[in-house]
Amino acid sequence: MRSYSVPTLAEFNAAEQPAAVALVRPCLDVDRWIDAVVDGRPYGDVAALVDVAQTAADPFTDAELDSALRHHPRIGERAGGASAEANHSRSEQSGVSADDDVQRRLAEGNRAYEERFGHVFLIRAAGRSGEEILDALEQRLANDAETEKSIMAEQLRQIAALRLEGIFG
């Protein structure tokens, strides 16, 4: 596979193990999930790949959730660096434009969420406006820890699926 081009599903199917791992790790940095997705090759189509990815991501352990969250910036903040994860995050949050009031409220909500739950607020940002994300953040602040963990896990599954579709779709 050429590192300067977008890989095809056929190239992913044929890739050596380390190269295949490197391709999917930015989608969800959970070793068990990565192993399941890579070991499930070959895939006939992207839908089959996403199906295996969704199944492997349910359920997550607490340690896996913690690991995955370390790679996600606060919503509304631009991810730094040149890593594949940062590039995915910037792309996903590119549509989250908001006026100064919404930006301020997102920052305040992020702080409140982190104080309440001990980690960043995670939501699939792709396809959502700043106002929609703010509404979800405000609603989720009322959740108990177990409910929030379940929602967060579902958001991680959605993000991973979208990233895989973006790479191979």
TrEMBL record:
Under catalytic activity, the entry for this protein gives: 5-hydroxy-2-oxo-4-ureido-2,5-dihydro-1H-imidazole-5-carboxylate + H(+) = (S)-allantoin + CO2
Q: Which UniProt keywords apply?
A: Decarboxylase, Lyase, Purine metabolism
Q: In which pathway does it act?
A: Purine metabolism; urate degradation; (S)-allantoin from urate: step 3/3
Top-level taxonomic group = Bacteria
According to the record, the residues making up region (Disordered) are 79-102
| Record InterPro entries | OHCU_decarboxylase, OHCU_decarboxylase-2, OHCU_decarboxylase_sf
In terms of SUPFAM superfamilies, this protein maps to: UraD-Like
| Record-linked PANTHER family | 2-OXO-4-HYDROXY-4-CARBOXY-5-UREIDOIMIDAZOLINE DECARBOXYLASE-RELATED
In terms of NCBIfam families, this protein maps to: PRK13798.1 (NF010372), UraD_2 (TIGR03180)
Output this protein's name: 2-oxo-4-hydroxy-4-carboxy-5-ureidoimidazoline decarboxylase
